[in-house]
Amino acid sequence: MHLVKRHFAIKSYLKGHQLHKLQLGSGPNRLTSWLSSDVEPESSDCIYLDVRRRFPFASDTFDYVFNEHMIEHLTFENGLFMLRECHRVLKAGGKLRIATPDLSVLMGLYSGTLDAAQARYVHRICERFIAGARETPIFVINNAFSNWGHEFLYDRETLEESMKSAGFHRISRVEPGQSDDAHLKGLESHGSSIGDEEINRFETMVLEAVA
Q1: pTM of this prediction?
Q2: H-type helices in the chain, by residue range?
Q3: pLDDT tens for residues 171-183?
């Protein structure tokens, strides 16, 4: 029954919107004018979609695809599959935007004396998310791998290589919330979800690419 409902929800969205925009792994942060999806939908306005399986859309359906702090919850192989499906369902020239923790930033915490921004990040992560931890980078780095269901953390080079392998080009890095494309501005909500935008901006990288 839920697959029938999903079919009609997709059909209704595509018919009712001139621009077709797909949000993957939306959780509670559903975007207006986007087709929100999640493996565990939290409301009737979000469709079921498991990104580890073929997406329930024809090729060349969407103008935009967006996901935030989601790809790191997949194995590397499943992440690559998801990227290939994103490329398949995007129209030629359509755009993908991905926000995810930057492993190089996290590993940079272990490179020596912390600067002010790094020290603030270590303090806030330990204070908010690691009960009883000493405020040292080793606890923060281990937490990034073991907490929140993370499976694989990317640096920029590895994520770009995966995106290129999936067929994307013109890959660029942008700041959270910023974009040269008005349809991709102000999308990230991870900072609000965790109650700390400074943490989000410190740890998050955002890449955009063209199909």
Answers
A1: 0.94
A2: 2-16, 76-89, 103-108, 116-129, 137-146, 156-165, 190-194, 197-203
A3: 999 999 999 999 9
